[in-house]
Amino acid sequence: MSSSEQHSPAPRTLYEKLWDAHFVAEENGEAILYIDLHMLHEVTSPQAFAGLAEHGRKIRRPDLTLAMADHCVPTTGQAKGIEAVEDELSRAQLAMLRQNSAAYGIEHYTIGDIRNGIVHVVGPEQGRTQPGMTIVCGDSHTSTHGAFGALAFGIGTSEIEHVMATQAIRQRKSGNLRVTVNGRLPPGVTAKDLALTIVSELGVDGATGHVIEYSGEAICALSMEGRMTLCNMSIEAGARAGLIAPDDVTYTYLKSRMPTDAWAAGMPRWKQFHTDPGARFDHEITLDASIIAPVVSWGINPAQSIAINARIPDPAEQDDSKLRAITERALSYMALQAGSSIAGTPIDRVFIGSCTNGRIEDLRAAATVLKGHKINPRISAIVVPGSGMVRQMAEQEGLDTIFVDSGFEWREPGCSMCAAMNNDRLTQGERCASTSNRNFENRQGPGGRTHLMSPAMAAAAAITGEITDFRTLL
Ligand SMILES: CC(C)[C@H](C(=O)O)[C@@H](O)C(=O)O
Ligand code: SF4
């Protein structure tokens, strides 16, 4: 035996294993990676389909492509179908997706289909998202699927066309960042609070050029849905993707969502996808989960977030002039007072939903807070399930009744007020408690002000009419 054969292979990170397992070739300093699942939605696919047709190409693997209508669907009257959509551009985008899916033989959950919903809720729910896969979609929050130990990232329009035609993508390798979260989250503190804490710790571009792997006791203790919430927001720290190694929580989640044979066949392969002891990361950060409180964003990016019992930053106390300018701009847009407490800030609207927090556990958490309460009569509040399946499950559990009795509107699935690409939007100056992932200027409607928080916190804000630590209502 030669000495090299005696050496065990070099330890690799989960990211490196996913990369190696999908590496096809190297070309001009870039790798070509094979793609296992390509998801499409109506907003970013039309141009790619047009390009494909123009070049006379076919879809290489329609069976590995899945299309959904989510961003601009209305959240009422979906039974009427696409033709009932008021906005002309949205109607055209939805119709194009339906028409292209039929023409190319792609499975498409169209508006009103019980399986339809936000692409990042539906992929996992339908058992399509699996460990060890590469998954792409023309959408930045594709990072959500990394919760299963899949390498999942958003791509641009020209890349969508490329994946359609070849089932592969050109990629440069990212750096590897590990976020270890030790200890346990206190009761009622959720993956959303953890995500906002990590993003504010890293900053909006702190993970740029990197893939984040989340590990540690607090991560293992998260449900699959919590893991999705966390990986979803990786992109808000600039990361290319977020990853969590698959474990029994993952396998159990998939068992009821996949054909038994495919599940059993997947298991031995899935189990390889974890970071080897001794594997090297480019950067590491460590957090203690036990000291995290519910978190609320106060500013105009998700990193501008603080614990519910903390005070809004004062630019006068910030030495860095760039940071000071950003804080000043945020305070002015958000119409908030430097140094005052975030708790007690009056709000006008509440949105519970999105690919971050529109799953069944999120709706349960909000309903638990709302049960037996009426929302403040000044507040207009909607709950938008992440998919038709989530909506149905919630109705079977009677959650819809709790929401409606408290004064919420019970809507039909879609992205809704997360990005205001349909009719659900804030008006100038309105302030919203929102379970979504982005609080950028004008995100939820021109001049709208967004405070990101967990579903339980959004429910509490609806009841009191102001930003509130939900634990005081229990
Ligand atoms: C419309 C789409 C391209 C966009 C994204 O990529 O993220 C949207 O989903 C968002 O959340 O802003
Ligand atoms: S719910 Fe929001 S963040 Fe998620 S895909 Fe839709 S618009 Fe993007």
From TrEMBL:
InterPro entries: 3-IsopropMal_deHydase_lsu (IPR004430), Acnase/IPM_dHydase_lsu_aba_1/3 (IPR015931), Acoase/IPM_deHydtase_lsu_aba (IPR001030), Aconitase_4Fe-4S_BS (IPR018136), Aconitase_4Fe-4S_dom (IPR036008), IPM_dehydratase_rel_enz (IPR050067), IPMI_cat (IPR033941). One of its GO terms (molecular function) is 4 iron, 4 sulfur cluster binding. It catalyses: (2R,3S)-3-isopropylmalate = (2S)-2-isopropylmalate. Its EC number is 4.2.1.33. Keywords: 4Fe-4S, Amino-acid biosynthesis, Branched-chain amino acid biosynthesis, Iron, Iron-sulfur, Leucine biosynthesis, Lyase, Metal-binding. Gene3D superfamilies: Aconitase, domain 3. It comes from the Bacteria. Binds 1 [4Fe-4S] cluster per subunit. One of its GO terms (biological process) is L-leucine biosynthetic process. The keyword Hydrolase does not apply. Belongs to the aconitase/IPM isomerase family. LeuC type 1 subfamily. Heterodimer of LeuC and LeuD. This is 3-isopropylmalate dehydratase large subunit.
